[in-house]
TrEMBL record:
The keyword Transmembrane helix applies. It comes from the Bacteria. InterPro entries: P-loop_NTPase. The chain crosses the membrane at residues 79-97. This is Terminase-like family protein. Keywords: Membrane, Transmembrane, Transmembrane helix.
């Protein structure tokens, strides 16, 4: 018996539904529309690109997927399309979208992004319906579908997910987050609960760079695992417990054309092109607090070794993210930054135990002078002890208060960054293993920007603690030198004298 037209349509819809449910890429390519801002806002299907299909497969198969990317690769749209697919075909999911700011996350859930694709799904199918949506000025902070699946917008920060259980977490532009490391550490319960993490970002110095190119703990591998390049412009490997796919603009055949490259370069600064398109990790978007720093000049070419017979200089910063710097000064006045220790969500007692273990392992037999945060004499609300009292009574460490003002610390740091020893060496040399300090100098530690105004003060973030330790160290050694020498240097640095020198 022949099928009626209605029955044929119903059968076709059923076959379509089954195909889309079991083939995510087919759903995205056939059902999801985007808006191309680079082409007068035209509404388009996703282009048929092999690298985008590969992204779908990686997200499907991996618990943690990380995508360092060039600009204009449609990665944000594609990740959102993957989230929409999960919401349409799976009930009772808790999906979180996390950006640097809450407003950025709400925009990604707005009628211009996630809900744009949702509202343009094929109308002849019955999709889960929105039963609740909390509107924000740029988008939506919360969306609930009648199949029980929800979307929630959140900002960066280690406490944002503490009270929730996430099925899927999408973290976008993580390289530009102020609290990237502490936020990343808070992601672990998502995986332990069986959830999935998706991260994408352009390049910028900081924790995200270390996550995809270096080691984040002692157990991490020194090199990439399972490294391969099956597609042009897509470099895949495992590192730090994540599957990483670097999406370079050459993954798109159109963007390999020298004419396209020349046109794009014509409207970009050299630094902007390197950061946004070439995925150069050493170029920062933020106004560096210490632009005087040079990786080539201030980072040692090989690991530094402590000098026998000379004391170590240790500096301390307190709070729930305590930090300690281990350094040494040579006979010529050069500061050698030997080691860095940073703790997260950890009290001073446990951090001091870690420092003691580090000293016993690598610096046994060396005397040490200790300088720290002047706030170390403030009493803790938990046990009514100051940090300095705890270090003194339980560990035999006597900490002298460091420079109080930011100006005193920063001027001292700039002195050591811009001055040479008598034999022409930089006055500050950093061990290459001190990755957090190096990242801080490269732009992780940067000036505060408020309402598009660049302030003189630094932004408080995950790099502040070790950078404050650098400040305490330099201010102490700075103050021990000849005062006239420093007056001359300060005058020179401010342009009041044409020629001044002190070695």
């Amino acid at each position: 018996m022949a099928l009626t037209k209605k029955e044929k349509n119903e059968l076709l819809q059923l076959l379509e539904w089954r195909e889309w449910k079991h083939n995510k890429t087919a759903f995205i390519q056939e059902c999801c529309l985007t808006r191309d801002e680079a082409d007068e806002g035209k509404v388009k299907h996703f282009p048929e690109k092999d690298y985008l299909k590969r992204v779908d497969k990686i997200i499907t198969g991996e618990k943690i997927s990380i995508f360092p990317k060039s600009r204009r690769m449609m990665m944000t749209w594609r990740c959102l399309a993957n989230l929409l697919y999960a919401a349409m075909f799976n009930p009772n999911l808790a999906i979180f979208i996390q950006s640097k700011k809450f407003e950025d996350s709400t925009y990604l859930m707005s009628d211009d992004r996630l809900l744009f694709m949702y509202h343009h799904l094929p109308m002849h199918h019955s999709w889960p319906q929105i039963i609740r949506a909390t509107k924000d000025k740029l988008g939506y902070g919360y969306i609930q579908f009648d199949n029980g699946t929800t979307f929630m917008a959140i900002a960066e920060g280690p406490d944002q997910l503490r009270q929730y259980t996430a099925s899927i977490l999408y973290a976008t532009e993580m390289a530009f987050w102020e609290k990237a490391e502490s936020t990343w550490n808070s992601f672990r319960p998502v995986i332990q609960g069986g959830g999935k993490i998706i991260v994408d970002s352009s390049a910028n110095p900081g924790f995200f760079k270390r996550l995809v190119t270096g080691k984040i703990n002692e157990q991490s591998d020194d090199k990439e695992l399972e490294s391969h390049d099956d597609l042009t412009g897509v470099h895949e490997y495992r590192r730090n417990g994540a599957y990483i796919a670097r999406i370079h603009y050459t993954a798109d055949p159109i963007k390999r054309d020298p004419v396209w490259i020349a046109n794009e370069k014509a409207g970009a600064t050299t630094e902007g092109w390197e950061r946004e398109y070439e995925i150069n990790w050493n170029v920062s978007i933020n106004p560096k607090y210490y632009p005087e720093f040079s990786y080539e000049r201030h980072v040692a070419k090989e690991p530094l070794k402590p000098l026998e017979g000379r004391p170590l200089e240790r500096t301390w910063d307190y709070g729930l993210t305590p930090a300690t710097l281990i350094a040494q000064q040579t006979a010529k006045g050069q500061l050698l930054i030997l080691d860095e220790l940073q703790s997260f969500d950890c009290g001073m007692r446990n951090h001091a135990k870690a420092v003691r273990a580090e000293m016993g392992t690598f610096y046994s037999g060396y005397a040490a002078n200790d300088t720290g945060d002047p706030a170390g004499n403030q009493r803790s609300q938990a046990d009514e002890k100051t940090a300095n009292e705890l270090l003194q009574n339980e560990f035999g460490i006597y900490v002298s208060p460091g420079a109080i003002t930011q100006t005193a610390r920063s001027e001292a740091v700039r002195y050591y960054l811009t001055t040479l020893t008598s034999d022409g060496q930089p006055m500050m040399l950093i061990d290459p293993s001190c990755t957090r300090i190096i990242e801080g100098f490269q732009g992780g530690y940067h000036r505060k920007v408020v309402a598009n105004r660049i302030l003189d003060e630094p932004e408080k973030n995950d790099y502040s603690h070790l950078m404050d330790c650098i400040g305490y160290l330099c201010a102490k050694m700075y103050g021990q030198k000849n005062t006239n020498c420093f007056d001359e240097w300060k005058a020179k640095s401010r342009g009041r004298v044409r020629k001044a020198g002190c070695m």
